[in-house]
Design goal:
- The strands form 8 sheets. This protein has a 4-stranded antiparallel beta sheet with strand order 4-3-8-9, with no helix packed on it.
- The chain has a domain at 414-457.
- Strand 17 (373-374) and strand 18 form a beta hairpin.
- Helix content is 23%, strand content 21%.
- The protein starts with 16 loop residues before the first helix and ends with a helix.
- Helix 1 runs parallel beside helix 7 (246-255), helix 7 (246-255) runs parallel beside helix 9 and helix 8 (273-280) packs across helix 9.
- By secondary structure, the protein is an alpha+beta fold.
- The longest helix has 24 residues, at 17-40.
- The chain has helices at residues 17-40, 50-56, 87-91, 109-112, 168-177, 179-190, 246-255, 273-280, 289-302, 382-386, 453-457; strands spanning 75-78, 82-83, 124-127, 133-134, 147-152, 158-164, 201-202, 206-210, 215-219, 223-224, 259-261, 305-309, 316-320, 325-326, 338-344, 353-359, 373-374, 377-378, 389-392, 394-399, 408-410, 414-418, 424-427, 435-437.
- It has 11 helices and 24 strands.
């Protein structure tokens, strides 16, 4: 049966559904070329030949479902969910230098996580194609494929919290094909009816000019601006952190699809999720999400499965820890307080594909949101609710026709750990003073100083 990529949660935003299908086909093509490149020793997937793909793609664990047929006995499962509150914010605590202790937030994490800035990019600045400096802060510490915005009354008391798990690259693709639909969604979710397509466009492009030299494209001239101000204030439409993209999910699921070996051909067993992601260099080792996704994908490889990301591909809010959100009298908060705006099946952990979720008092309710208790504490910060949410994705898997795990390749790198902390930084074996190799047997070579490691450990990328 022919495979068709539907939009996340089965949304119908695209006038022509084949437009999103084509986007996802391109993503899958790139992943297969990248994986084959790892196998044949080519760093640039553009240098991988069609013959190499034809030879090696059928042996990979990860499958391009348009290029290979998915068998009828394949099953779709949700991988283990991960916490929505950023692990890195907790690992960098206490934040008391910038956020002195207050009631309900002694170590500053609940205020630090809502801070706006540019830590999601490498040190440098944003500029357009003419060199004009741009200020484009986003929710740069909310990096678990979950972001949120709180609404407050005139006294600064919470009245509603909105959570999203929609990648900005989905909106960029939609903007290319149906800018009016993007404008419509922005107006709906921000309540700013004057927004136009030009307000969301990077007219002169956006580039990250790096402190160490060079620049990276954030948005090409005339294309969608993923860091536009309307997604930050007054509301939230989609994810904003650089790493919170659908493309990152696809890449991580793919990069994790090769069995790995340490020095002396010792297999990587995948039991330590952080060791694994330091080995494959597929994502951020200090996140809850990336190591968990990588580990779950790798377990499929080791189990003799072939797999692909399930249709519709997406990252979804998986569940709510209902037991730890209570009314003032200690009873569970009724489900009517939760409103699924985009997506479906919130209350089924195995099926939930929720993209946009609100917490607010239902119509006619006299209890205020600020009177609820999260984990026993009165609700003051949206991060308290984020700690109760989890995120997941789905894969479709089936057993290999022949026993085995497919190609086995060396680790791509390792990690250094900041002494006395849990903070990890991806490395090629070089460590700054104050760091030590966390996993010294992943790659060969002795550690030597690296000038950028301290900046990375403190959140810059």
């Amino acid at each position: 049966m022919a495979w068709n990529f539907d939009a996340p949660a089965g949304l119908r935003d695209f006038p022509n559904s084949s437009d999103w299908h084509d986007e996802m086909v391109g993503e899958a093509d790139l992943i297969i070329a990248t994986l084959v490149g790892f196998v044949v020793g080519k760093d640039d997937p553009r240098n991988v030949t069609p013959q190499e793909i034809a030879t090696w793609a059928p042996r990979l664990a990860y499958v391009h479902p348009v290029r290979e047929e998915v068998p009828g006995n394949a099953e779709t499962i949700a991988i283990k969910a991960w916490p929505g509150f950023p692990r890195l914010v907790d690992r960098r605590a206490p934040w008391t230098q910038d956020f002195p202790p207050i009631n309900g937030d002694a170590n500053g994490t609940l205020r630090a996580v809502d801070h706006l800035g540019e830590e999601d990019h490498a040190p440098g600045h944003f500029a357009d194609r003419h060199g004009n400096l741009l200020q484009l802060p986003v929710r740069h510490r909310q990096d678990e494929y979950l972001e949120w915005v709180a609404e407050k009354d005139s006294d600064g008391t919470l009245t509603k919290v909105t959570f999203v798990a929609e990648g900005y690259d989905y909106f960029a693709a939609l903007f290319d094909k149906a800018p009016d639909r993007v404008v419509e969604l922005y107006r709906e979710f921000t309540k700013v009816n004057s927004i136009t397509a030009d307000d969301l466009r990077a007219t002169d492009g956006i580039f990250r000019v790096l402190s160490k030299g060079g620049r990276r494209v954030v948005a090409n001239p005339g294309k969608f601006n993923p860091r536009n101000r309307f997604n930050i204030n007054p509301g939230i439409v989609h994810l904003s952190h650089r790493a919170n993209s659908l493309g990152a999910e696809v890449n991580l699921a793919g990069v994790s699809a090769l069995a790995r070996k340490k020095v002396k051909d010792v297999p990587v067993d995948g039991k330590d999720e952080q060791e694994l992601i330091c080995c494959n260099q597929g994502g951020e080792p200090n996140r809850n999400s990336d190591p968990k996704i990588s580990q779950q994908a790798y377990s499929l490889v080791q189990g003799g499965f072939r797999y692909t990301l399930a249709n519709p591909v997406g990252l979804y809010i998986a569940s709510v820890d209902e037991a730890n959100l209570t009314l003032p009298d200690g009873s569970p908060t009724p489900r009517e307080w939760w409103n699924v705006v985009r997506g479906h099946d919130l209350w089924s952990d195995r099926d939930s594909r929720v993209l946009r979720l609100e917490l607010r008092p239902p119509p006619g309710e006299t209890t205020k949101l600020s009177e609820l208790r999260a984990n026993g504490s009165r609700l003051r910060f949206p991060g308290q609710i984020a700690r109760l949410l989890s995120v997941h994705l789905f894969v479709t898997r089936w057993q290999r026709a022949e026993p085995g795990v497919g190609p086995v390749v060396p680790c791509r790198g390792t990690c250094c750990r900041l002494s006395g902390t849990e903070l990890l930084v991806g490395s090629d074996g070089q460590c700054d003073d104050g760091f030590e190799l966390a996993f010294p047997d992943l790659i060969g070579g002795a550690p030597v100083p690296s000038p950028t490691m301290l900046a990375k450990a403190h959140g810059t990328r």
